């Protein structure tokens, strides 16, 4: 995407495009819901056009937002939830800190040690995260394998502890609900690529809602709108 003119050749103004993308990613709406809402405002925007906007700008929004995120804590809570893609269950790995702030996320077709290792590497490479002091997981046998592998490679701190206590992971399990609700109203996904692009948008809007962006307070919708506009 051309950073100088990300909306070049679009038939609608940038404000309209960002409005539709933001509403779809933030609220429990379908593309047809948004089509009707725009029609009430005198704008004829087909639902497939809004879909293409989301696929194009959701990953870009997530990428441009990352440098502005606040630092998170060193106590990780890691879990995975299920997302259906073209009739098949896939796994959305997600991690938050002890305060519920999002660390990172990763969509995988498998739920094994390789996927867990890939996810841990992704979280550790994220600029706004700190090296973990403790990682809390459930009873999934894949996590200890990935943990040992990364410790042996020196990627995880040697004094980092893996804690397999399910009830301590309630905070991340409750955090799944926001994403699951949006997926439900979005009527599912038809490919892994479209699922990943959309989920990136869902997650970044959830991050903003939790006031993880520098200079934005919780519930300050006006600042969120201005921030998104400034990114583009």
Radius of gyration (Å): 18 Å
Secondary-structure-derived class? alpha/beta
Largest sheet data? 5 strands, mixed
Annotation field: number of helices:
8
- Average the pLDDT over all residues and give the rounded result: 92
The spatial strand order of the largest sheet comes to 3-2-1-4-5
Return residue spans where pLDDT drops below 50 for at least 5 consecutive residues: none
Structure description:
This protein has helices spanning 14-26, 31-40, 47-65, 113-124, 142-152, 170-185, 192-209, 221-231; strands at residues 75-85, 88-97, 102-108, 134-137, 161-164. 33% of the residues are buried. The chain is globular and about 60 Å long. α1 (14-26) crosses α3, α2 (31-40) crosses α3 and α6 crosses α7 (192-209). The protein has 8 helices and 5 strands, in the order αααβββαβαβααα. The mean pLDDT is 92. The longest helix has 19 residues, at 47-65. By secondary structure, the chain is of the alpha/beta class. It has a 5-stranded mixed beta sheet with strand order 3-2-1-4-5, with helices on both faces.
